[in-house]
């Protein structure tokens, strides 16, 4: 066979040497199947559901342009930071989006929070991490910590969406992700099902604890959750960390914040 190729002058075209040296990458079997899959099941915008044009990531150009961004990722003294004033000694606090009722962005958040589309939260976290990195306020963070789910709820849901968000944020910031040190030690009702404001605070009181506090003590922790409403869950979690690790510095960041909680009932936000 080798002599045949040499005689016909096609040795380089079919040889191992040619394949290794060619500047044009040869498609793999996996690549073929990926393209066939995309042909029949094209990737769709996470917000509006339309087919994504080439070069788009997670959201179509229209939905990226129309996102209800807060603009707080690079602003120290913002309404989210002031919301924690007097309640929690935070170094920084921000939310990336406004959680607007009856919008496609609310549906997007519910899709990974309640409908199993966890991949969306990882991609949103990556975009959010880029925004936090560009803002420059979180450069001193040592570790990114997601607000944990109780093991029973995690087993029922199959994942913790805050952990996937935190994973994407950690990647965008270039910081390590720290899971397992902060745990939800008591099973409680979902905050979304707790409509009375005072009951939300009672519902999350003393439900978090810290394992191996020496791993967090003295570090700047970025605590991550999906949606900020009253702030009760984040504050309860942060208090548990500070109780076990008094020399910690805490910053908080959420994917979205209820505009209703920040600006009142006519703002159009809420769960």
Care to describe what's here?
With 271 residues, this protein is of the alpha/beta class. It has two domains: 2-40, no CATH class; 61-267, Rossmann fold (3-Layer(aba) Sandwich), CATH 3.40.50.2020. The chain contains 13 helices and six strands. The chain has helices spanning 2-8, 11-14, 16-21, 29-40, 61-65, 79-83, 104-113, 118-135, 151-157, 161-173, 197-203, 232-244, 259-263, and strands at 90-99, 143-146, 182-184, 208-210, 220-228, 249-258. The chain has a four-stranded parallel β-sheet with strand order 1-6-5-2. The protein has a two-stranded antiparallel ribbon with strand order 3-4. Strand 5 (220-228), helix 12 (232-244) and strand 6 form a beta-alpha-beta unit. Helix 7 (104-113) packs across helix 8 and helix 8 runs parallel beside helix 10 (161-173). Residues 1-24 have low confidence and may be disordered.
Unreliable sequence segments: 1-24
Task: State the CATH architecture of the largest domain.
Answer: 3-Layer(aba) Sandwich
* Fraction in beta strands: 5-15%
Annotation, overall tally of beta strands: 6
Largest sheet, if any? 4 strands, parallel
Strands across the major sheet, in which order?
1-6-5-2
* CATH fold annotation of the largest domain: Rossmann fold
Average predicted confidence as pLDDT: 83
Question: Share of helix among residues?
Answer: 40-55%
The helix/strand class is alpha/beta
**What separation lies between the terminal Cα atoms?**
70 Å
SSE order: HHHHHHEHHEHHEHEEHEH
Task: Give me the Rg, rounded.
Answer: 23 Å
Shape: globular
């Amino acid at each position: 066979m080798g002599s045949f190729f040499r005689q016909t002058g096609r040795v380089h075209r079919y040889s191992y040497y040619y394949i290794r040296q060619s500047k044009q990458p040869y498609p793999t079997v996996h690549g073929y199947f990926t393209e066939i899959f995309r042909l029949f099941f094209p990737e769709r915008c996470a917000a509006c559901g339309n087919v994504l044009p080439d070069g788009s990531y997670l959201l179509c150009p229209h939905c990226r342009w129309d996102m209800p961004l807060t603009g707080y990722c690079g602003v120290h003294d913002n309404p989210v930071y002031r919301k924690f004033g007097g309640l929690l000694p935070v170094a920084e606090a921000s939310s990336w989006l406004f959680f607007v009722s009856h919008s496609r962005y609310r549906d997007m958040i519910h899709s990974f929070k309640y409908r199993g589309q966890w991949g969306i939260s990882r991609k949103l976290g990556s975009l959010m991490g880029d925004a936090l990195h560009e803002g420059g306020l979180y450069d001193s963070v040592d570790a990114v910590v997601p607000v944990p789910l109780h093991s029973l709820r995690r087993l029922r849901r199959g994942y913790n969406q805050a952990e996937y968000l935190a994973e994407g944020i950690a990647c965008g910031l270039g910081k390590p992700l720290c899971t397992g040190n902060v745990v939800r030690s008591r099973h409680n009702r979902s905050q979304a099902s707790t409509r009375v404001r005072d009951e939300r605070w009672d519902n999350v009181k003393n439900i978090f604890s810290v394992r191996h506090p020496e791993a967090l003590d003295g570090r700047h922790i970025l605590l991550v959750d999906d949606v900020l409403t009253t702030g009760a869950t984040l504050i309860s979690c942060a208090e548990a960390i500070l109780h076990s690790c008094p020399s910690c510095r805490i910053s908080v960041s959420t994917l979205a914040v209820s505009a209703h909680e920040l600006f009142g009932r006519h703002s159009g936000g809420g769960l």
